[in-house]
Amino acid sequence: MGQLPLEVANVLSVWFETLLYGIYFSLFFESVYVIMKKKRTKTLPAKLFFAATVVMFLLATVHIAISLYRLLRGYVWLASDPGPVAYFADYHRWDNVANEVISGIQTWIGDSLVIYRCFIVWSRNYYVVAVPSVLLVLSVIGNCMVFQIFNSKDVDGLFSVPLQTWVNLIYSATFAQNTLTTGFIAYRIWRQDWETRQVLGPGSYRGAASLLPSVRVIIESAMIYALEVLVLIILYAIGHNGEYVLQAAVTPTVGIVFTMITVRLALRSSEALKTTHLPSAFRVAPTGRMHLTTTINQSSDQELEESRKASGDDQVFELKSVGTQHEHEEYVPLIGTNTRQHQRPKRNKT
């Protein structure tokens, strides 16, 4: 593979980040509109996720502003001395260091939110998020060591020998952590969907009530960031300057993944409300059970809310044990219980 000249890589990195920031800009305001319209900021966890989304957008905005400033400094104002290549490689300059710090903070916030979402989906199971949390700590330590090396040693780019161990640690830990948490969330939602189908029977649980489309949205969206980190690992291993181009894209990509999940699920819910006809409608009672009624060919916004919650949308949620209530008040728990032991006696309606 031919090497990319550094002066070209630096320009392409700013251009590529600007392109992704434009996409992020649009998705961010779409997600804010969806959240405000559906009033999904009532609970404390939902407020936390919304606040984090806003902070991530502000960080991405500051990052692209500094990148454009660096482009002007390196290729216009200081083009003759020291020159663009030397300017971008000087990590003692405040703007170069600030760009790396903002990128690190952005990834920390994004990774922390994914772990927290996984924690809530698994009913606050600390064992499930233990390994991802350790990987996040390793990534933070690696970033802090990189920042310290920037200040204490003379480095001429990301491929400098003092940085190699820590950069490899950061990429490896980030990739493993995101892959694990996404897999855990997807499996939990898929398991919820499968167990519900087992109780309700084939053909009685489909369309908008199914959680499988939500699993697909989560996996497809998270795959963008995971694949980007994987390519970064490969480029860094072979010492290719395309690393600089893709590294600059990390900051907007993290925000794109989170806002894309919110927007895609909102679009899916709207479409499902218009087109889906279910043999029965599901309602979530205050007691935490799922009631099955005999309303024919009627889709429920609450059942879509269940699907949205199980997908990890902007609100945080728990997948708790639920049950179905048939015409004769027969309760059949769906998760974590033995159905025979928890069935109540049937009683006819009066």
From TrEMBL:
Keyword set, alphabetical order: Membrane, Transmembrane, Transmembrane helix
Compositional bias ranges of the Basic residues kind: 341-350
Highest taxon listed in the record's lineage: Eukaryota
Region (Disordered): 297-350
Transmembrane segments: 12-36, 48-72, 101-119, 126-150, 170-190, 211-238, 244-267
Membrane is among the record's keywords: yes
Name of the protein this chain belongs to: Uncharacterized protein
Record organism: Gloeophyllum trabeum (strain ATCC 11539 / FP-39264 / Madison 617)
